[in-house]
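ok, trying the design again with the full structure, not the truncated one.
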């Protein structure tokens, strides 16, 4: 090789290695309170891969926080700037930081938190059911409601990291969409770079049990996850054929009813993914139109969209959504980083070519009934009810 290169140089040729064009994608970031740290880890890994160009971002709730941090960081310092902004945001969101402003404790909160964390970490070693961690999450949720949920605390904290005026001015930046739920008409309200603000992000995160009323221009808003978790439709207009949905609570395949997690986990899984199911099904219908009659689809403004999902691939307990201690957030970040790494290894070649996820690859809505037909009708043995092992402990 060295000889060939030398000969080419002598003959006046320059040998340059051409890099393949970057693959353009848009990102749809789900909410999920502390599980947004999983998304942070996914974004961290995607930003490291310079083969990918992000040309649109949409987020709801915690996904909205990730979206604005990513967009602002990219505006100010490119990929490294985005990684730094995301890290600063999640450090600021940690329970250790938030509790510094807890009423009546002030500086003592640091000592108290250190002691509580030590106790919880010790007890967690002997708790296989996760009750200790769930109790810790409830305490942290109460503190967050007392601090972040009141007044302008949330907006002030986010405003120290993200300059929203700068986001508005940079109209040539990555298209940004943040969803909130308009309580007056029960519809999704999409904020973009023209009207994004710290208050709009708060509206997107506004779970009613945590936050005071968030009113913008006389209208009351709740968490964007109730209607669009996240908003996918605006991403179809961006300059990309691929949408990567970063899913905090996965749609999991289950062969039988008794394989399900707790009722609460199942409820969260269904609610969190209702809009995602609807949007992916709509995309699949549009793709079918494109395949059937490309010219007619083009006239209607319909283009082929490839859908991809990055998730943990396992049950994410809903009882831990309000667990914001730094160790837990770091664990979630690392989980997201590894999930993105696996996605890139398994599906990078599909980006720009085909979907790696469709609703056909998820559990279809009729799976439960099909299981009953195939198993219960032919062999009519009732599914045994779960026994409450703790029942007799009430009396002994």
């Amino acid at each position: 090789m060295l000889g060939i290169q030398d000969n080419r140089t002598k003959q006046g040729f320059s040998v340059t290695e051409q890099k393949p064009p970057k693959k353009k994608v848009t990102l749809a970031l789900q909410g999920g309170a502390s599980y947004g740290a999983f998304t942070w880890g996914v974004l961290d890994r995607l930003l490291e891969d310079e083969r990918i160009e992000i040309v649109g971002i949409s987020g709801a709730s915690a996904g909205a926080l990730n979206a604005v941090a990513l967009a602002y960081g990219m505006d100010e310092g490119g990929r490294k700037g985005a990684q730094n902004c995301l890290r600063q945001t999640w450090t600021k969101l940690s329970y250790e930081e938030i509790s510094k402003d807890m009423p009546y404790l002030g500086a003592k909160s640091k000592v108290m938190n250190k002691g509580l964390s030590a106790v919880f970490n010790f007890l967690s070693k002997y708790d296989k059911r996760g009750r200790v961690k769930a109790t810790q999450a409830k305490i942290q949720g109460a503190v967050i409601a007392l601090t972040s949920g009141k007044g302008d605390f949330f907006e002030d904290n986010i405003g120290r990291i993200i300059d929203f005026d700068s986001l508005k001015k940079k109209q040539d930046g990555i298209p940004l969409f943040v969803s909130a739920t308009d309580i007056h008409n029960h519809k999704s309200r999409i904020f973009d770079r023209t009207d994004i603000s710290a208050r709009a992000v708060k509206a997107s995160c506004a779970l009613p049990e945590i936050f005071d009323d968030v009113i913008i221009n006389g209208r009351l808003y709740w968490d964007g996850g109730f209607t669009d978790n996240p908003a996918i439709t605006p991403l179809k207009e961006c300059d990309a054929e691929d949408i990567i949905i970063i899913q905090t609570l996965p749609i999991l395949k289950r062969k039988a009813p008794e394989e399900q997690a707790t009722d609460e986990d199942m409820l969260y899984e269904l609610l969190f993914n209702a809009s995602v199911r609807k949007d992916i099904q709509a995309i699949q219908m549009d793709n079918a139109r494109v395949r059937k009659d490309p010219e007619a689809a083009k006239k209607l403004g319909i283009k082929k969209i490839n859908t991809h999902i990055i998730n943990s691939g396992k049950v994410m307990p809903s009882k831990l959504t309000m667990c914001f201690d730094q160790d837990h957030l770091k664990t979630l970040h690392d989980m997201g980083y590894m999930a993105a790494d696996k996605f890139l290894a398994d599906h990078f070649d599909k980006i720009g070519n085909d979907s790696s996820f469709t609703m056909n690859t998820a559990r279809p809505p009729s799976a439960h009934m099909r299981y009953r037909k195939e198993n219960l009708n032919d062999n009519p043995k009732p599914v045994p009810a779960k026994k409450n092992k703790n029942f007799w402990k009430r009396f002994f």
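Keeping the full-length input from now on. The domain at 22-91+146-365 is CATH 3.40.1090 (Cytosolic phospholipase A2 catalytic domain).
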